[in-house]
Amino acid sequence: MEEIIIYTDGACANNQEKENTGGYGAVLMYKGKIKEIFGGYKNTTNNRMELMAVIEALKQLKRKDIPIKVYSDSSYVVNGINIWIHDWIKKGKIKKNYDLWMKLYNLKKGFKKIEFFHVKGHNGDRYNEIADRLAVKGSQMYDLLVDEKNLD
Asked: Which UniProt keywords apply (predicted)?
């Protein structure tokens, strides 16, 4: 059966500090072809970069009718989109990263079949390791990084 497989990861150096750099990375696979994407921001958080990895990966997809499997080592992302998001929206209680959760939620609704799975990070999974390296690469593009606080 045809399907798109996506591995995502986020990274943030000095995550709790006032000044930091974060990055996201993703590996997209379809019919034996592999595409890698990455990017980054200044003054962000690890959770935001985990969400950005999935959002940016899904934005790459032109077809909405092919089944998609997304693998992330972030329990925050996987549990958030599989379980918590529905109650958050119903109760109006998305306190953190509201903008990114809504982007991901709306992107997800546009696909015919999309599933999210948790994979243990830094455990030798080839594509998770590649996504991790891409996220770190994104966070290290110092001169190109945009301050996330200056977006929108």
From this structure: Endonuclease, Hydrolase, Magnesium, Metal-binding, Nuclease
* Residue of 9, 23, 39, 138 with catalytic role: 9
* Helix-helix angle 98-109:46-59, to 10 degrees: 30
Would you call 34 helix, strand, or coil by DSSP? strand
User: Could you tell me the pTM of the whole model?
Assistant: 0.92
Q: Summarize pLDDT for 6-19 with one digit per residue, the tens.
A: 999 999 988 777 78
> Hey, what are 62's tokens?
């032109």
Q: Is 125 a catalytic residue?
A: no
Is 99 one of the catalytic residues? no
Q: Which residues in the chain come in under a pLDDT of 70? A: 1, 142-145, 149-152
Active site includes 152? Answer: no
132 is catalytic: yes
Side chain identity at residue 4, one-letter code? I
Which is it for strands 4-13 and 68-72: parallel, antiparallel or unpaired? parallel
The answer to whether 36 is a known catalytic residue is no
3, 110, 122, 147: which is the annotated catalytic residue? Answer: 122
- Active-site hit among 22, 73, 80, 138: 73
Return the bridge partners of 5, or none.
Answer: 29, 69
Length of the chain in residues, anyone?
A: 152
